[in-house]
């Protein structure tokens, strides 16, 4: 079985587990081409058991959403990051939120999964690798929202989404 079939199967199994735990949720599928070095990194991460990433759409009791701005991006996004081998996606989401914001969260639902078929832009004959990014709904249960050194430049609660979002798909999440 090549990397395409193995990664597709691994992602499908993880999504099935999440659906058993949380019920049905939206799956968005995209195809994306990567420069050869980035493609190799994605294949290597898959071979190491790391299937993608996860993040949270954390809302507080006032309905505000927790967003972060990293130094490398001049825009706001949800706290999120890379999945580690043998880690459940819900653990990835909680860990990344804590590491980036200082806020501990309880995951309450799955909002969406974005399934990416990653291809080498320089060689269309190379097998694709399938990755998944899981977005969880969450609520704060402890900690204080503060930028975390080496992780984030700014952390804030928003009652309206800022104009400068890292990507437009964030506008689809509930506010």
Q: What spatial form do the alpha-carbon principal axes imply?
A: globular
The CATH class assignment is Alpha Beta
Report the helical percentage: 25-40%
Specify the biggest β-sheet: 5 strands, mixed
The unreliable regions are none
What distance lies between the first and last C-alpha atoms, to the nearest angstrom?
43 Å
Estimate nothing, just give the exact number of structural domains.
1
In terms of DSSP E residues, the strand content is 35-45%
- The helix/strand class is alpha/beta
List the strand order in the largest sheet.
Answer: 1-5-6-2-4
Contiguous helical run count: 3
CATH topology: Nucleoside Triphosphate Pyrophosphohydrolase
Structure write-up:
- The chain has 175 residues and is of the alpha/beta class.
- The chain has a single domain, classed as Alpha-Beta Complex (Nucleoside Triphosphate Pyrophosphohydrolase), CATH 3.90.79.
- It has a five-stranded mixed β-sheet with strand order 1-5-6-2-4. A two-stranded antiparallel ribbon has the order 3-7.
- Strand 5 and strand 6 form a beta hairpin.
- It is globular.
- The N and C termini lie far apart (43 Å).
In short:
The chain has 175 residues and is an alpha/beta fold.
């Amino acid at each position: 079985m090549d990397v395409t079939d193995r990664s597709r199967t691994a992602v499908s199994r993880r999504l099935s587990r999440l659906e058993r735990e949380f019920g049905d949720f939206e799956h968005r599928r995209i195809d994306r081409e990567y420069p050869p070095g980035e493609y190799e990194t994605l294949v290597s991460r898959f071979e190491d058991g790391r299937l993608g990433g996860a993040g949270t759409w954390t809302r507080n009791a006032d309905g505000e959403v927790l967003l972060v701005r990293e130094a490398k991006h001049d825009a706001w996004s949800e706290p999120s990051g890379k999945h580690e081998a043998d880690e459940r996606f819900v653990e990835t989401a909680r860990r990344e939120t804590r590491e980036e914001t200082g806020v501990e969260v309880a995951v309450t639902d799955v909002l969406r999964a974005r399934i990416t078929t990653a291809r080498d832009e320089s060689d269309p004959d190379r097998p694709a690798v399938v990755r998944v990014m899981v977005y969880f709904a969450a609520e704060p249960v402890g900690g204080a929202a503060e930028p975390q050194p080496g992780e984030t430049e700014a952390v804030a609660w928003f009652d309206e989404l800022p104009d400068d979002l890292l990507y437009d798909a964030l506008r689809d999440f509930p506010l």
